[in-house]
């Protein structure tokens, strides 16, 4: 009986991992408007994509969550070629977050302060599921989250680690934590 149960659980884990690795979330179409864009710092392409959506009019505001405390707005502007007028009116650098859970807390506070009812979440494709889960835990139920995953080429080890982080957080949700 134990062997069958263990084999069954291993099979479920394996199919879950294969699904997780093969069916990564994709980008959201440019025509979708939201009240705000939220980008979580990390892998290449995230911030550039969020800024392009902002400049194209996809939302009036952008929060960059998880910016290193050493980075100043002037440095950010120079590195990402952000026009000064856009930086002043529409971009907020969030310095409070250091991981995905604290990103969600920082985002929830910012969304509440800016009265956003819909957000476009920008992060890497392999990170999107857990990031959206964390945000959904922190945001009120009436806030719409549009997922805009930036395509990447994650290594097997990144996928393996992220799959287990997602399982742990989803399991915590089921247990009420």
Q: Which stretches are low in confidence, meaning pLDDT under 50 for 5 or more residues running?
A: none
Structural class: alpha/beta
Integer tally of domains: 1
N-to-C order of helices and strands? HEHEHHEHEHEH
Helix content: 40-55%
* CATH topology heading: Rossmann fold
Strand arrangement in the largest pleated sheet: 3-2-1-4-5
Which band does the percent of strand residues land in? 15-25%
Please state the CA-atom Rg, rounded to the nearest Å. Answer: 18 Å
| CATH class descriptor name | Alpha Beta
What is the H level of CATH, i.e. the homologous superfamily?
Answer: HUPs
Tell the overall outline.
elongated
Q: Number of helix segments?
A: 7
| First-residue to last-residue Cα separation | 31 Å
The CATH architecture comes to: 3-Layer(aba) Sandwich
Question: What would your notes on this structure say?
Answer:
- The protein is α/β, with parallel strands linked by helices and 177 residues long.
- It has one domain: Rossmann fold (3-Layer(aba) Sandwich).
- Helix 6 links the parallel strand 4 and strand 5.
- It is elongated and about 65 Å long.
List the SSEs and their pairings.
Layout lengths: L1 H21 L13 E5 L5 H10 L6 E4 L7 H8 L3 H7 E4 L5 H15 L3 E7 L3 H11 L5 E7 L5 H19 L3
Parallel strand pairs: 1-2, 1-4, 2-3, 4-5
Helix pairs in contact: 5-6, 6-7
Briefly say what this structure is:
The protein has 177 residues and is an alpha/beta fold. It has helices at 2-22, 46-55, 73-80, 84-90, 100-114, 128-138, 156-174; strands at residues 36-40, 62-65, 91-94, 118-124, 144-150.
